[in-house]
Amino acid sequence: MSGLSLQVTSVTIMAPDPRALAVFYSRLLGRPVTTSEGPREGHPAADGWAQIRAAEGTGEVTLNFEYEEQWKRPRWPAEPGAQNASQHLDIAVDDLDTATQHAIAQGAVLASYQPQDSVRVLLDPAGHPFCLFT
To answer: What pLDDT score was predicted for residue 1?
Structure first.
């Protein structure tokens, strides 16, 4: 890989209503929605795209939200025959209990199964799991 530079700059999250999900993560993370595009001609009202861009120099990843017409809510933890979550966001926090309450106040749901004492698994409004951890 001599001379080759590879850098992950963003993660794209598929959703049934990407603009609404971007607003949720904007409130959760305290970052503004920097791009929001409405539906393409001939597509449903929920169609569109949105972005929460990381501030320059922070090293944080930009989050993109894209419409998925065939959306199936993932099951967490995974269940045989059900749609499973293929990835999730890990979010470092300094106070797990306060961050959990903040996430719930923004519209997240605490998952019924919690695998570790230092991690809280929550589900965003579209059903994607995400983890808060210390």
So the answer is: 67
